[in-house]
Design a protein that fits this description.
19% of the residues are buried. The protein has helices at 5-44, 112-115, 132-140, 144-147, and strands at residues 59-61, 65-68, 77-84, 87-96, 102-108, 123-129, 153-159. It is built from 4 helices and 7 strands, in the order αβββββαβααβ. It is an alpha+beta fold. The protein has a 7-stranded antiparallel beta sheet, with helices on one face.
Length: 162
């Protein structure tokens, strides 16, 4: 019984293909993990303020309410800020915990009926969101009580100059 040469070549090609696939998958998977790690670090770090001190003083505002309920899904870790009319907020909210860690979240201005918060005359609502994955890391470190404190959340505002 003679061994057919095409079967031997087929086996070598399959082995080469399998090894190449594993190496390529490992490189691609490693690159994806690195990209996700870099992205999560970038999102948690605070970028520079878009407000310029040359246009007037920056006025910090602390929230009227902080909600930390990440188990309810996305956008359930936020602070409600009341910003006076005639002022505009920075695009990021800063959360500075007592241990020296600083996190940033994005802000958005919901319509008053969507805010679910009573808005006094002369103010408008701005909601600062903290990413759920960042919150999970903070909660797993046992810092829920610190995260719920309004004095740790700050939104920079500035009087309109235009």
């Amino acid at each position: 019984m003679t061994r057919r040469p095409w079967k031997r070549r087929l086996g070598r090609h399959l082995l080469t293909f399998a090894i190449g696939g594993m190496v390529g998958g490992t490189l691609f998977g490693g690159a994806q993990v690195n990209r996700l790690w870099q992205r999560s670090q970038m999102i948690s770090d605070c970028p520079g303020s878009r407000l310029s001190a040359s246009n007037g003083p920056l006025i910090p505002v602390h929230p009227a309410q902080v909600t930390v309920e990440p188990w309810k899904g996305r956008h359930n870790v936020y602070a409600v800020f009341l910003v006076p009319n005639g002022y505009h907020p920075d695009e990021f909210v800063t959360i500075a915990l007592p241990d020296g860690q600083t996190y940033c979240g994005h802000i958005f201005t919901p319509k008053p009926h969507v805010a679910n918060y009573p808005v006094p005359p002369g103010y408008y609502v701005v909601r600062g969101l903290l990413r759920t994955r960042t919150t999970i890391g903070i909660l797993s470190a046992g810092k829920k009580a610190e995260l719920e404190q309004p004095q740790h959340w700050t939104l920079a505002t500035q009087k309109n100059w235009w």
